[in-house]
Write a structure and sequence with these properties.
Order of helices and strands: EHEEEE
Structural class: mainly beta
Largest sheet: 5 strands, antiparallel
Number of strands: 5
Number of helices: 1
Radius of gyration: 12 Å
Strand order of the largest sheet: 4-1-2-3-5
């Protein structure tokens, strides 16, 4: 599990510069997994999922993508995820 927070100011990047149609597709391509639920350990919703931009709470300014439901993608608190984090490609 990783302790994360939603990154601010990332909505300007609607999709990756690497050709995928969405950040969720980017995460699935990089992990080889299908996103089926929200990665927040206190949620696990199977509703509408997005590839959310997050940062590790104790880990610098690097941006990562992980699947979150639309509600958890709006959270302003710190929370645990149990899904893989995939680094946002440089140049984003």
């Amino acid at each position: 599990m990783t302790y994360v927070k939603n990154a601010s100011g990332t909505s300007r990047w609607s999709k990756p510069s690497t050709g995928e149609s969405s950040w969720l597709e980017y995460w699935e391509k990089k992990t080889g997994k299908k996103a089926t639920r929200c990665g927040a350990t206190d949620c696990h919703s199977t509703g509408t999922l997005v590839g959310a931009h997050v940062q590790k709470v104790f880990g610098g300014n690097e941006l990562y993508i992980t699947p979150l439901c639309t509600g958890c993608n709006q959270r302003s608190d710190n929370f645990w995820v149990d899904t893989e984090l995939v680094r946002v490609p440089s140049g984003q």
